[in-house]
Recover the amino acids of this structure.
């Protein structure tokens, strides 16, 4: 199975900050990678797919980059609604594993 | 409008069985890739199964031989039959639609399963 490792596990930031979350795959997944946002008690919501394509309706302050084994999710200017947990997930080969998550907290 | 509604979760003893349902609307489950994903309490997400439009299904190793995915195309419902349940199967189970080459675009609201004596 391909292992996905996110860093950091927790990130403290303030409204207006630029933040970056990293996701590393144990082997190449090309650009078959998605990013999701999850709030407590809710299902995840897709933000980015195919490593860098912004899902329709997602604010442009979210962006994704990378290929192969290293990927990043960047939020250019944090808004109050962005404090949540973020997961990466590959869909290169089954099982489509998720990263362990990054909790974005208010500083 | 695309919608997925999960149901069927509950409390079950170890070794017991449960069947989850995912009622889909706005698209045919038979023409899409459909998955079950679970999330143990205060844990991350785990992909459980992936059913292709043709019916072939992949299962993660920890549930192989115990869980079975099926679908009712007339009712447009996806099922997850869970047998020989273990304490470690305790989680919220989400049904999800998978876009080919683009990951999950729609999720159900989740249904909680607790395996405990």
């Amino acid at each position: 199975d391909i292992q996905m490792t996110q860093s950091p596990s927790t990130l403290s930031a303030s409204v207006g900050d630029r933040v970056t979350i990293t996701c590393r795959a144990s082997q190449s997944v090309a650009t078959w990678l998605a990013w999701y946002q999850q709030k407590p008690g809710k299902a995840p919501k897709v933000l980015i797919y195919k490593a860098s394509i912004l899902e329709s309706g997602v604010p442009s302050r979210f962006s994704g980059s990378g290929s192969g084994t290293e990927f990043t999710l960047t939020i250019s200017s944090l808004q109050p609604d962005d404090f949540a947990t973020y997961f990466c997930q590959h869909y290169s080969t089954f099982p489509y594993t998720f990263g362990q998550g990054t909790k974005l907290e208010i500083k | 409008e695309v919608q997925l509604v999960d149901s069927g979760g509950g409390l079950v003893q170890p070794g017991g069985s449960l069947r989850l349902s995912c009622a889909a609307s706005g698209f045919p489950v038979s023409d899409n890739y459909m998955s079950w994903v679970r999330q143990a309490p205060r844990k991350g997400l785990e992909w459980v199964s992936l059913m292709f439009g043709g019916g072939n299904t992949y299962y993660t190793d920890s549930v192989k031989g115990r869980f079975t995915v099926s679908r009712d195309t007339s009712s447009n419902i996806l099922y997850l039959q869970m047998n020989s349940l273990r304490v470690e199967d305790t989680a919220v189970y989400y049904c999800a639609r998978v876009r080919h080459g683009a990951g999950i675009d729609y999720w159900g609201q989740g249904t909680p399963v607790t395996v405990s004596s």
